[in-house]
User: Which sequence fits this backbone?
């Protein structure tokens, strides 16, 4: 494996230290993570490269910490390659399926002029496209020209509220100091311990199936990956949540993704984020499927959800209800806009959060349309932070018992990016070349050309134990 040359970069920068503190980590461990620099990997006005490397750095450190806790050894050093980070943060753009390049944004998703500014729409899913057009009084076969004309005649905030009321997705592009999102009030990570109990040991770990991790301090006594034996129910979609669970799978967890057969998902997105996992379809409104789900839940260590606040409550899957039935569970939640306030219940995606929090305005060119970050960095960064939070919760549970409730949001990560990270000196090192961090893997979906994981381990980079398969085709059972 070719790696970036150049001297290691010290980890004690503000972003890494801030993220590790938000995770509740021991600051003395920060000296165990360093970075291999590259130049120009994620160029932007905002400190995107600093955010990206910090999120991967703390996730790598959290994995090393869990492995050390399970093995009884010291936490080993890890070195994150910034070239791997820059490649992984645009993994959906590197993906090829039998040579085919997926479409990341549909024709009706993007920036559009309004009567008094700009709006950003998201219409990648057919039901969101239909609701957008219905809200604007347009026929179902309308294209970009018809949408542009309809939006140009309306004020941006009026478009936002009209489309929201119809269940669609559009937000007014905000200036940094005019955002409706209460950025100052949004934490990066929320974590609380629920209940008491004796320390809960994880089930016996199984040896690494990837063969990429050497016998080192990051391994458990059985020679397994840090999260081996951990059972994760994955109720997430799109990018951020699936990146988190893809990372847990890389580290040895048995990750079972559960989707409703009535809710469509982009199969190309799953081809990018489904590595290492299995995927089953269950309709939680059907009694038989609900019983199957409850049986899975009874043996789970972690539940990760990526739905709007309150959306799963009708199924008895609100965090307090889950932890009351299953003491010691780690419940990790992800949403777009934060967990309180008038926007908390709204649907959202990375591109919309960028638009509503002032990021699109900051990244705009002079006299041009709004801009965007060089990656869907809110999604990817939040995903690695979510995985890190789960790993740290498992480490803490090994020593103190009790359950854990974790909450993150894309808007919380946007607040950190725009207000909490000081640009660091990222010069030095060779120019970024993604080639060393790309791989080809055969799968039931076809030959996948894809990004490798940026997670660093003492034994070198890891490969996933299995490629993604077709959505919903695996048996709903634990390995």
Assistant:
């Amino acid at each position: 494996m070719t790696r970036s040359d150049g001297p290691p970069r010290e980890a004690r920068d503000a972003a890494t230290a801030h993220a590790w503190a938000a995770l509740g980590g021991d600051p003395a461990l920060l000296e165990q993570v360093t970075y291999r620099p590259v130049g120009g990997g994620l160029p932007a006005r905002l400190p995107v490269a600093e955010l990206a490397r910090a999120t991967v750095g703390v996730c790598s450190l959290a994995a090393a910490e869990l492995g050390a806790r399970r093995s009884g050894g010291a936490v080993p050093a890890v070195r994150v390659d910034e070239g791997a980070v820059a490649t992984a943060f645009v993994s959906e753009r590197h993906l090829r399926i039998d040579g085919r390049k997926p479409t990341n944004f549909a024709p009706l998703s993007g920036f559009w002029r309004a009567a008094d500014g700009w709006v950003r729409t998201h219409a990648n899913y057919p039901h969101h496209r239909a609701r957008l057009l219905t809200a604007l009084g347009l026929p179902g076969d309308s294209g970009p020209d018809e949408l542009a004309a309809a939006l140009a005649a309306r004020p941006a905030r009026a478009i936002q509220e009209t489309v929201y009321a119809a269940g669609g997705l559009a937000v007014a592009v905000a200036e940094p100091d005019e955002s409706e999102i209460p950025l100052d009030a949004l934490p990066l990570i929320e974590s609380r311990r629920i209940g008491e109990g004796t320390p809960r040991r994880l089930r016996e770990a199984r040896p690494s199936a990837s063969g990429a991790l050497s016998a080192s301090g990051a391994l458990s006594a059985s020679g397994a990956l840090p999260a081996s034996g951990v059972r994760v129910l994955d109720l997430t979609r799109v990018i951020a949540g699936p990146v988190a669970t893809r990372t847990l799978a890389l580290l040895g967890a048995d990750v079972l993704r559960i989707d409703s057969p009535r809710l469509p998902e982009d199969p190309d997105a799953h081809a990018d984020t489904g590595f290492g996992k299995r995927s089953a379809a269950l309709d939680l409104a059907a009694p038989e499927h609900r019983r199957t789900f409850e049986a899975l839940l009874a043996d789970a260590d972690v539940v990760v959800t990526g739905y709007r606040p309150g959306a799963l409550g009708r199924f008895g899957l609100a965090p307090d209800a889950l932890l009351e039935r299953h003491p010691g569970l780690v419940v990790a939640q992800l949403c777009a806009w934060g967990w309180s306030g008038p926007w908390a219940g709204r649907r959202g995606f990375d591109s919309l959060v960028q638009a509503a929090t002032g990021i699109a305005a900051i990244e705009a060119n002079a006299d041009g349309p709004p801009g965007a970050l060089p990656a869907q960095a809110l999604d990817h960064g939040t995903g690695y932070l979510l995985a890190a939070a789960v790993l740290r919760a498992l480490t803490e549970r090994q020593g103190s018992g009790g359950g854990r409730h974790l909450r993150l949001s894309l808007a919380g990560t946007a607040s950190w990016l725009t207000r909490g990270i000081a640009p660091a000196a990222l010069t030095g090192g060779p120019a970024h070349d993604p080639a060393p961090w790309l791989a080809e893997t055969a799968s039931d979906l076809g030959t996948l050309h894809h990004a490798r994981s940026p997670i660093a381990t003492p034994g070198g980079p890891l490969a996933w134990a299995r490629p993604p398969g077709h959505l919903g085709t695996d048996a709903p059972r634990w390995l």
